[in-house]
Design brief:
Blueprint lengths: L7 E4 L1 H7 L4 H8 L3 H8 L7 H11 L3 H4 E4 L2
Antiparallel strand pairs: 1-2
Helix pairs in contact: 2-3
Protein name: Transcriptional regulator
Keywords: DNA-binding
Organism: Furfurilactobacillus curtus
Length: 73
């Protein structure tokens, strides 16, 4: 029997970026990724690796759970 899991990783990268008055390019450079990666992450089309998720949380000086949340459907 196949289980259809449509779990979601929600993020608040956009909100934290705007709060810190950063462009997508500035944030991307700060955490070592492309602007495109930030763009698709903010739109919810990309879930970052754990390494990148921790890098972002450390950059914003927040707990990773404040930046990302897991929703099991």
């Amino acid at each position: 029997m196949k289980h259809d899991h449509e779990d979601d990783i929600n993020n608040h990268v956009y909100e934290f970026r705007v709060l810190h008055h950063l462009s997508q390019t500035e944030l991307a450079q700060a955490v070592g990724v492309s602007k495109q990666t930030i763009l698709v992450m903010e739109k919810g089309h990309y879930s970052p690796t754990l390494k990148l998720a921790f890098r972002l949380a450390n950059f914003f000086e927040v707990d990773i759970n404040d930046l990302f949340s897991y929703e099991r459907n």
